[in-house]
Amino acid sequence: MQASDNCLFDGANGISFKCGSNILTVDASGIHFNTPNFVDNSANGGVSVEDVIRDEDIMNVRLNDLNNNYLTKTIDKDVVLKADTTLSDGRNIKVSLIILDKEGKELARQTKNTTIKNQRISEYFDKEEIMKVSLIILDKEGKELARQTKNTTIKNQRISEYFDKEEIMKEHNLSYEDIYEIEGEVEW
Q: How many domains is the chain built from?
């Protein structure tokens, strides 16, 4: 074997070095140390402890479409939330897709249970399943007297959700004399 200045290890998804229960992994998302005893004694400054990804980290969270293209601000109907993790395979976790308005106010949220597979998180969301509709009852001054909100879906390019006005009135102790206007609202 001849000595060389460089040594190249090329792995399609990543490379891991294991000794006992200690694992060093290099992949597209970074360098990961999985060890109960990380020692920061590298020469020339080396790797700082703050830069080391510890056990049970979630990193490189991203949104993709169904063709695995990255999404930024424009979200297609179908969204796949993906992330890399040091969580154990088979572990069940909750992931949420949150839709915000331009000011960062939360408009809608959907949370799903998912299972870690190959140290990756991948969960499908249909944006249209996250939409919310509200029935709002107002008095003569436009003050909100009652609101009922439901998650809904779009079917055949239409939103249709049933609200029981009598039930809402009874729940909020309202009579027909209290009600001036009823509005509908759609959020997503």
A: 3
Same domain, yes or no: 153 and 120: no
For residue 166, what is the enclosing H or E element? helix 165-171
Q: Domain check: are 98 and 45 in the same one?
A: no
Handedness of CA 153, 156, 159, 160 (dihedral sign): negative
Q: Which element (helix H / strand E) includes 104?
A: none
Please check whether residue 1 lies inside any domain of the structure. Answer: no
Q: Which domain holds residue 26?
A: 14-49
Residue 30 CB neighbour total at 10 angstroms = 15
CA trace torsion 166, 106, 108, 170 (10° rounding):
-10
Q: Buried b / exposed e across 77-88, counting CB within 10 Å, b at 16+?
A: eebbbbbbbbbe
Q: Is residue 91, in this structure, part of any structural domain at all? A: yes
The pLDDT score that the predictor gives to residue 82 is 82
Secondary structure element (H or E) that encloses residue 168, with its range: helix 165-171
Instruction: Give the global pTM.
Output: 0.43
Question: Average pLDDT per run of 10 along the chain, which is 188 residues long?
Answer: 62 78 79 74 55 61 71 64 81 81 72 87 77 82 86 69 86 86 72
The DSSP code sequence of 55-99 is TT-EEEEEEE-TTS-B--SS--SEEEEEEEE-SPTT-EEEEEEEE
Is 165 found in the same domain as 152? yes
> Of 156, 102, 149, which Cα lies nearest the Cα of 130?
149
In a domain, 137, yes or no: yes
